[in-house]
Amino acid sequence: MADTRITPTTLPDGAMVSLLSVLGDEGVTNSYTHQVWSVRGGPSVTRTEGRDETAKTTYVAFTLPDQVLHAPAREDIVDPAYEYPRANPDAALCHLMYVHLGGDFGRLPFELELDDLDRPRIKRISTAMGIADEMEAYLATVLDLNREQDVAPGLGI
Hints:
The protein is of the alpha+beta class. The protein has helices at residues 19-25, 66-69, 74-77, 89-101, 119-129, 132-151, and strands spanning 16-17, 36-42, 46-52, 57-65.
């Protein structure tokens, strides 16, 4: 479903909606955010925040190095179903990992719905971004936690 807060003119210059906005909207994480999280290319990892009073929206934009953001094939990262630049959930998860590794994001979410993610595409994206080992370890931890929750004893209520 298209986010009515977002148009190509309300996004920061060169930004693509990604990170927690995409992961929450697509149900990968169990938390929807009212902020619009995005990534854009630049010289290094930085975080900027701004507010669009017309749209009544707060934007959180992370700048990733151009060579990292644009390393994966475009068809692997862009969600063609939207009229504005938007990452697919696989790319959004990789963007989140990269920002986390850069130290500019707190804890990674570990309650993830992985069923609808494309693991081979995540591998391609994370390899191109230079974070394949970290992404593989993260997903293994998430899968282990999901398995533990599936076999945890019920509360008996």
